[in-house]
């Protein structure tokens, strides 16, 4: 899989998150803050081998694709 950098949170430090990547398989990779709150995770049905990360609204701009 090849990754293409799309954007980094302008409010993150130089090595921080969140960051958005596009893959050559028609998918996205999101680097973000690990969700560890049991109350939040209890509201989700996350299968083994999967995880979730949290990103702020200001990152949504990086999910817009040009035609």
What does this structure look like?
The protein is mostly beta strands and 67 residues long. The chain has one domain. 6% of the residues lie in helices and 28% in strands. The strands form 2 sheets. The chain has a 3-stranded antiparallel beta sheet with strand order 1-2-3, with no helix packed on it. A two-stranded antiparallel ribbon has the order 4-5. It is globular. The mean pLDDT is 88.
What is the percent of helical residues? under 10%
Largest sheet: 3 strands, antiparallel
Multimerization status? single chain
N-to-C order of helices and strands: EEEEHE
User: In one word, what is the shape?
Assistant: globular
Across the major sheet, the strand order is 1-2-3
Radius of gyration: 13 Å
- What average pLDDT do the residues reach? 88
Number of strands: 5
Strand content: 25-35%
| Terminal Cα span | 22 Å
Uncertain regions spanning at least 5 consecutive residues: none
Give the structure's gist in a few sentences.
By secondary structure, this protein is mainly β.
Topology:
Blueprint lengths: L2 E6 L10 E5 L4 E4 L1 E2 L3 H4 L11 E2 L13
Antiparallel strand pairs: 1-2, 2-3, 4-5
Q: Which features would summarize this protein structure in a list?
A:
two-stranded antiparallel ribbon; mainly beta; 5 strands; three-stranded antiparallel sheet; globular; single chain; 67 residues
